[in-house]
Amino acid sequence: MDQKENIMNYETVALDDQDHSIVIIDQTLLPGRTELIRLRTAQEIWNAIYLLQVRGAPAIGVTAAFGIYLLARQIQMENIDNAGSDFGAFYRQLTQQREYLNSSRPTAVNLSWALNRMDALCRKAGEEEKRSVAEIVELLHQEAAQIKEEDIRVCRAIGENGLTLVKPGDGILTHCNAGQLATCKYGTATAPIYLGEERGYHFHVFADETRPLLQGARLTAYELHSAGVDVTLICDNMSATVMKKGWVNAVFVGCDRVAANGDAANKIGTSVVATVAKRYGIPFYVCAPTSTIDFDTPTGEGINIEQRPAEEVTEMWYKERMAPEGVKVFNPAFDVTDHDLITGIVTEYGIARAPFTESLAQIRRKKEAA
Ligand code: MRU
């Protein structure tokens, strides 16, 4: 496919039930080539997540959930140590695979959130309800499909809530890609933009290019442009310029993990944008499904920030050097935006505002009561 075909018509993550594989768009090749790849083994799923062929916190979670279903099915079929009928053997083998998948990337909590949800279902069905392995595999299938469906509903609800914060014609700046390509539909930070577009709001979006891997240029600018949204690509060092000119009314970003006090980890550079937005009095909103809120991590200090290979900075993926051989490189994939720089955290259950410890806990209670 060339760039003229619309990327918005593709699913970010899909399960092929006939072929027993996960189908993803290889996002490392976008926007130049749209290639669908199939993941079947634990190693293929691990690699796809680690290599960012599938990326963005919610999409990683959905991929891992489908992965657990497929691996459970394989364990049942292979029947090693009687795992096709003995729950103990089945669970031991599945636990190994779950832990392996969980080691692919550390920062986005949606990965462990989805894996834990699949694990809880498996233990309940096997230990408490004494279901057969075949039944458990089918339940895991349904749960993974449910996680995907929920992601679509949740993103839409974030879009509705986010849309109350802006008005037609506004300028919106975003960083990295928290778009449809990072979720199953709508995105998180882009959901208010897509919903606004449907309703004739005609926002003017500024997409930061997002070094080192250019998710903003390759993915956000690409998907928004394909969807007919008015988007302008800017380099990461231009956000102060467009803000100072008065072109930006609000910033919407996604996130990989929100601590209980509202500190939010997102793509490296997000905290710079938040700091500049504060300087110019521009509201800074973090869009977060509740699956991205980690109540077990009290503050941003406790968030494990992934360190990525130096080559991403010195060569990106093209193997053409952009920096001297042997130079020292620091390449954290994410940074933490302190909660005092955040105007609001937009979730599917409403918008949390300072003090975040209380407002996020209230959102959690709303979710539990739903
Ligand atoms: O390294 P990436 O591309 O996975 O980083 C993605 C981001 O930082 C997104 O903003 C975040 O995962 C939210 S996606 C809705």
UniProtKB/TrEMBL annotation:
**EC identifiers of the protein:** 5.3.1.23
Pathway listed: Amino-acid biosynthesis; L-methionine biosynthesis via salvage pathway; L-methionine from S-methyl-5-thio-alpha-D-ribose 1-phosphate: step 1/6
Q: Keyword check for Heme, yes or no.
A: no
Query: Which reaction equation describes what this protein catalyses?
Result: 5-(methylsulfanyl)-alpha-D-ribose 1-phosphate = 5-(methylsulfanyl)-D-ribulose 1-phosphate
> According to its UniProt entry, what is the function of this protein?
Catalyzes the interconversion of methylthioribose-1-phosphate (MTR-1-P) into methylthioribulose-1-phosphate (MTRu-1-P).
Chain sites annotated for binding substrate: R55, G56, A57, R105, Q215, N266, K267
Q: Which Gene3D superfamilies does the record cross-reference, listed alphabetically?
A: translation initiation factor eif-2b, domain 1, Translation initiation factor eif-2b, domain 2
Give the transmembrane region(s).
none
**Species:** Suilimivivens aceti
The gene behind this protein is mtnA
Q: What is this protein called?
A: Methylthioribose-1-phosphate isomerase
| Family, as annotated | Belongs to the EIF-2B alpha/beta/delta subunits family. MtnA subfamily.
GO MF term set: S-methyl-5-thioribose-1-phosphate isomerase activity
Q: What class of enzyme is it?
A: isomerase
For this UniProt record, give its keywords in alphabetical order, as a comma-separated list. Amino-acid biosynthesis, Isomerase, Methionine biosynthesis
Q: What does UniProt list as catalytic?
A: D256 (proton donor)
Site positions (Transition state stabilizer) are: C176
